[in-house]
TrEMBL record:
SUPFAM superfamilies assigned: POZ domain
Gene3D superfamilies per UniProt: Potassium Channel Kv1.1, Chain A
Matching InterPro entries: BTB/POZ_dom, SKP1/BTB/POZ_sf
Residue ranges occupied by any BTB domain in the UniProt entry: 77-144
Family matches, as PROSITE patterns: BTB (PS50097)
Pfam families per the UniProt record, alphabetical: BTB (PF00651)
SMART domains referenced in this protein's UniProt entry, alphabetically: BTB
Organism of provenance: Hottentotta judaicus (Black scorpion)
Identification of the protein by name: Putative G protein RhoBTB
Length: 248
């Protein structure tokens, strides 16, 4: 039963470590876990590698259910967050399991551990929902983009979620690269992203912004001189040193 519940919670497939397949099959049948029943049927056969594909399909199905039932419908939510523009429901158990800061907040002697409504100043409902999408599904929300990523990066950094920060960076950099490939000028956007990213420990995105500004330095000087002059002296010095084309 423990393994069945483990599969239902996170889709883990460690059948090879199980010795009593018959009891495991009974548990899967009792809980009507069709995906696990299929995996157990494949166990011991040459095509057992298909079990990994079934696990992945189940994980995608689980993500959809988490979004539909838990996040969008708020089913069995047990905590409310007071945000800048309204109230948003959530689930303590998921927050505690996925975020160490939340775990400390709800498990320790802090007032939030017994509060029914937790104030979360400086965070909008849109940004908080994007956070919950990651915590509930381990995926970055599709609505996150280069235009709205900064509040989410700040929140992810505040909650000590470096993997989430890296995932946001990956999505934003991919978007910026695609824009460059389409001939869209991204220098103004990268100038605005650069220093907030450095503040919020989004180092990979900050490095990409520096590189993009440096290789388009002449265009930046021509079109975005005011933004360039507002940068920190260290960033200006780096760009002067690494600009392309260089000044001989």
């Amino acid at each position: 039963l423990h393994h069945c519940l483990r599969f239902l919670y996170c889709g883990m497939n460690d059948i090879s470590a199980q010795r009593n397949f018959s009891k495991l099959k009974e548990g899967a049948a009792l809980l009507n876990v069709s995906e696990l029943q299929e995996i157990l049927t494949l166990a011991g056969h040459d095509d057992y590698h298909l079990g990994d594909e079934l696990c992945q399909k189940y994980i995608e199905k689980l993500r959809e259910r988490m979004l539909t039932m838990c996040l969008n419908a708020g089913l069995f939510s047990d905590i409310l967050f007071q945000l800048e523009d309204g109230i948003f429901p959530a689930h303590k158990s998921i927050l505690i399991a996925r975020c160490d800061v939340m775990a400390a907040m709800f498990s320790g002697d802090f007032c939030e551990s017994s509060a029914k409504i937790v104030p979360f100043p400086g965070v909008s409902k849109e940004c908080f929902k994007q956070l919950l999408v990651y915590l509930y599904t381990d995926k970055v929300d599709q609505t996150v983009s280069s235009a709205n990523c900064l509040p989410l990066l700040e929140l992810a950094n505040r909650l000590c979620l470096p993997r989430f920060v890296a995932s946001i960076e990956e999505k934003v950099v991919s978007e910026l690269i695609e824009m460059c490939q389409k001939g869209i000028n991204t220098t103004e956007l990268t100038l605005k992203l650069l220093e907030p990213c450095q503040i919020h420990n989004a180092d990979q995105l900050a490095e990409w912004c520096l590189h993009n500004i440096a290789i388009n330095y002449n265009s930046v000087c021509l079109n975005n001189m005011k933004l360039l002059r507002k940068l920190h002296p260290e960033n200006q010095a780096y760009l002067n040193k690494n600009r392309w084309p260089p000044v001989w």
